[in-house]
Amino acid sequence: MTRLHTMIGELAGDDADALGVLVGIETDRGPWVAALVAAGYSVLAVNPLQAARFRDRLGVSGATSDAGDAHVPADMVRTHGHELRPVAGDSARAEAVKVVTRTHKTLIWERTRHTQRLRDALRDYFPAALVAFTDLDAADTLELLAKAPTPAQAARLTTAQISGALKRARRRDIAGKAAAIQAALRAEHLTQPEVVTAAHAASVRALIAVLTVLDSQVKTLQGQVEAYFGQHPAAEIIASQPGLGPILGARVLAEFGDDPDRYATAKARKNCAGTSPITRASGKKKVAPARFVHNDRLIDALLTQAFSALRRSPGARAYYDRHRARGAGHNAALRQLANRLVGILHGCLKTGTLYDETTAWSHHPKNIAA
Prior knowledge:
Elements: H1 2-12, E1 22-25, H2 31-38, E2 42-45, H3 48-58, H4 66-80, E3 85-86, H5 92-125, H6 127-132, H7 139-147, H8 151-155, H9 159-168, H10 174-186, H11 194-230, H12 235-239, H13 246-256, H14 266-273, E4 280-282, E5 285-287, H15 296-312, H16 314-325, H17 330-351, H18 357-360, H19 365-369
Parallel strand pairs: 1-2
Antiparallel strand pairs: 2-3, 4-5
């Protein structure tokens, strides 16, 4: 960074302070971006897809080099800087929320992946376990599988051992569930040779150990997410939205950011969220398909919010039912509801007001009354 400042100073000469420096970079976060913004440069985030398509204007051979890759964003900034989005000026609190929420969600995804790997391993040598245990990442399931990872060992589990694991997991109807699990584990099923079964059991023990750690860290980070989110000034407004609690609210805040100038209109926020459709018009033909390129973390949080809002907001439920009555499928109607909720959130953040059911759905009075 020091060498960069020196080079720019030498090129600018005596007009270094008055000269505006534009920087194009194919990312919007990290130490480099923070240092460039702190130096007073105007940093423009260039989408890698934009850069790739702009490169085709300069040559079609497909040849690449570091110098050529640097020339592309530099030329984009020089000729199309007015059309590029400046790096958002999110606060340090919002950045902290983003760090913990993204790590928390990543660990949840990793837990799901390892659970599927465990399911696949059990299917190969111990299918009875899939009948006995419906929730493979539950604490009682992991405890029993770690204690008895082979069919022979599982068949020797007593009712007391199974009931103890269920009690520690705070299950209900312990006696009935323990009997059902024991019967499933002792039922006849296809097996593998003993040496293959032993190898599978070693792999399952490793997967169980990883899942145990992941589950523990997910719970630990959940507390951190709630703590960091609660410290943000916009937390109360975001948490007032239907379907948004501390965890989902923190994810929405993290992915949207808190720069007040980033989204000029509700439409801009919806486009960033990926909930609004893409309009494609040519001649007399006009279609509006859904967006498939979007922020996976943000769209996941928004669709979860929309589904949860169906039970918490009469207006949201009426809006969803109206789209279903028009022939829209569940996913399409849910995406439309998420799009509407993003607009409501935008209005609340712009005006600094909490969510109000009557105000939010005042343009659908008949639906709300129904």
